[in-house]
Amino acid sequence: MIIDTHAHVTGPMEIYEYFRGFSGTSGGGSRPGKFEMTDEQIEASLVEHLEEVGGVGTDLQIIGPRPWAVPTGDRRQALVMHITQQINDMIARCAKLHPDRFVAIGALPQAAGVPIDVCLEEMDRCVNDLGFIGFKINPDPGEGALETPDMGSEYWYPLYEKMVALDVPGLIHGGPFRFSREPELGYFCTEQTIAAFALLRSRVFKDFPDLKIIVGHGGGYVPYQVGRARAFRLNEMRRDPSLESFDESLRRLYFDTVLYNQESLELLFKVAGPDRCLFGSDKPANGSVIDPATGRSLNDIKPMIEAIPWLTDADRYAIYEGNARKVYSRLSVTAKAV
Ligand SMILES: [Zn+2]
Description:
338 residues; alpha/beta; five-stranded parallel sheet; three-stranded parallel sheet; 8 strands; 43% helix; 9% strand; globular; binds zinc ion
């Protein structure tokens, strides 16, 4: 079975146009009502998605919100909450319409400069009422501003506590990028790398040994920079011998395979270990473009993994299915197909 752990649903575009009308407004106009949509509208928005994903042999996708779905840089918490709830409701309806193809993770109503506690109630609703099995975490809700500390900070502890209590993992994934000097391509990987390095040098996994975090897009630049990271850690260990090695720290995180390049995947598997990597394709998205060299879409990742000669059958099972089942422990409770 192939479980794709990195995917986003769009839903009917009208919902985003509706919300867009409220960003930049103030006063009474900043309180949108509920956006009504029919099952037929949702189904129509899923046709191409389901065809593309089915076409590469994926059995089940763990779907979350589009990265830009929630305007986390907005300080109006009530507006952010309202949009987040409606996005989560829409994702839940997609999963309900196709329980054999989709299982959902939720958006968090994060807002720049606001304590993370604002997310907790919505997390309960998503897991207990909507059957979600995890969350997408935006590591930089301030969109380049400094209001939100890095993910190694105690600012995030109420979120981690709730994730452990609900037994749900979090996928670190970049969000909207209004203030970034680099748009989506570099911004997502950069913020995911900043989040991962911050977690790796923090006490977070000592304080929350059961916390499960997946770093999106193959861990950003972390695998490529592992040599320098080892050097920094070894120097720190000379001052404080109680510290663990960087490689030990690295094995506390999980990573997905959204890399679109066999050599990059090999490096990830070698550095992090196949037992820490979850199959993910980000399908459909910009990687759906056809690679002229192969005639396949760049986010058709299974053939790249199949071509790595040193992976064992057990490694491949872990990457395609086993690790997802372990990390998303609520999967077996919720998904119809597993
Ligand atoms: Zn993504």
